[in-house]
Design a protein that fits this description.
2 helices; mainly alpha; single chain; 52% helix
Length: 69
């Protein structure tokens, strides 16, 4: 099995395992959907926190953020 099968890869420069860009984009779409379908403020807040984290990581990688709003 490869690490990429689990959406992670080894970063030689930082010597750590990082999430692949494709997986980050999938997570952004997933949490955008969760935010849209949230029924309570707590659910919205949790979804927004995750969404901000994943979008920030994508921006740091100079990637386009998927927009499904």
């Amino acid at each position: 099995m490869k690490l990429k099968d689990y959406y992670f890869e080894w970063n030689l420069y930082r010597e750590e395992i990082i999430m692949t860009t494709e997986k980050l984009k999938e997570l952004v779409k997933e949490y955008q959907e969760k935010y849209r379908n949230a029924l309570t403020d707590d659910e919205r807040q949790i979804a927004m926190w995750h969404l901000n984290c994943y979008q920030t990581e994508l921006m740091m990688r100079d990637e386009n953020i998927p927009n499904t709003y």
